[in-house]
Design brief:
Chain lengths: 71, 292
């Protein structure tokens, strides 16, 4: 998991994320956990905001906008 | 050992970017402030870019609609979070045009979610009176991290209008979270002389965290002559106040910044601080202030 976490985080933050080289394996696992949680939090917040936006939109526009957003 | 003040401020900002608490990102302290900042910038980029394509498509729709209709749709259907993400994908002129027609409170909420890489050109194009109103709303919400990030976009007029209307505490907290030392220095050097003295007094006589914010500010100033002036204002405080500041620096962390401040004092002021009885009680203090 430790090696995987480092590779996953590097994949998200960029191959040239040299800051990761200065972090221990345990630190990178913590960073990985924080990033996973943040991505999940953001995904949920944006999905909720988008759903609410679509609900508020005039019905005539709703289908088109949904297709564009979820394209 | 407790991290220094600059590191702590960066940990707070990293935690904010990751939607978590500073203690959950304490592992990054070993990177130092510059390393944490670089890590945060990568985190912000990764998170903001993750859903970017969808927001770019919504921004593309808005291009074909007239501004008043865009504003109506946004206010009716978009949360400030969504509006901020879409605004980040618009041309800055277009985003500012919409912002100039939206309620201040809505804009203040949206500012918190604005992509920092795109915030500056948008904010710089918003009408100054509205920008000031948004900043004041953010101060009322104590959104000092957001304000510190937006400092780069503030014109001299905005800085003057805002600092005239907010408390010394707010000035100190915004400075504490300023993204760059140059922007922090620009704000503080723009303050009238008496206000600078007042801010220093407020920092010294406030709670421990405000004293630390004041110390951090002194440590980050890039104008040496101005730092000398600020340090001398600090030395005007009475012995009890100075002693409390020195003790806070030892107990909570801030010795590096304290040493910078004492070094910046004029000779009589420095001598007075170094002769305070508290130095005899704290070996760490003596080592930092005398043993260099």
């Amino acid at each position: 998991m430790t090696g995987d976490a480092r590779e996953l985080v590097r994949g998200w933050l960029g191959e040239d994320a040299h800051e990761l080289d200065a972090l221990s394996d345990a630190d990178v696992v913590e960073l990985h956990g924080a990033l996973v949680a943040a991505r999940r939090h953001q995904g949920r917040a944006l999905a909720a905001a988008t759903d609410e936006a679509l609900r508020q939109m005039p019905a005539v526009l709703r289908g088109t906008v949904r297709r564009i957003v979820e394209h | 050992m407790a991290p220094d003040l600059a590191t702590r401020a960066e940990l707070v900002k990293l935690a904010r970017a990751l939607h978590t608490s500073p203690d959950r990102v304490a592992f990054a302290a070993s990177l130092g402030p510059a390393g944490i900042r670089r890590l945060r910038e990568r985190v912000v980029t990764a998170l903001y870019d993750e859903h970017r394509a969808a927001f770019q498509r919504v921004a593309a729709i808005s291009r074909v609609l007239p501004t008043p209709l865009n504003v109506r749709i946004a206010l009716r259907a978009f949360s400030p979070l969504l509006a901020a993400r879409v605004a980040g994908e618009m041309a800055p002129e277009r985003a500012a045009e919409l912002a100039n027609r939206m309620p201040i409170e809505y804009l203040a909420q949206a500012c918190v979610h604005l992509d920092p890489r795109r915030a500056v050109p948008v904010v710089a194009r918003i009408r100054p009176d509205r920008a000031v109103a948004v900043v004041l709303a953010l101060v009322a919400r104590e959104e000092f991290i957001t304000l510190g990030r937006l400092l780069e976009a503030a014109t001299a007029r905005i800085v003057e209008d805002v600092t005239n209307r907010v408390s010394d505490e707010a000035v100190l907290w915004i400075g504490c979270y300023a993204e760059s030392d140059e922007h922090l220095t620009r704000v503080f050097t723009a303050l009238p002389a008496e206000r600078v003295r007042g801010v220093v007094h407020t920092a010294l006589t406030g709670p421990a965290e405000l004293r630390l914010a004041g110390l951090a500010m002194i440590g980050r100033l890039t104008d040496d002559r101005f730092r000398n002036r600020v340090a001398d204002h600090a030395a005007e405080a009475d012995d009890d106040v100075l002693t409390r500041m020195l003790t806070t620096a030892v107990e909570v962390g801030g010795l590096t910044e304290l040493a910078t401040a004492v070094d910046a004092m004029s000779e009589p002021a420095r001598r007075r601080v170094l002769e305070l009885p508290v130095l005899a009680e704290h070996e760490t203090l003596r080592r930092h202030l005398l043993g260099r």
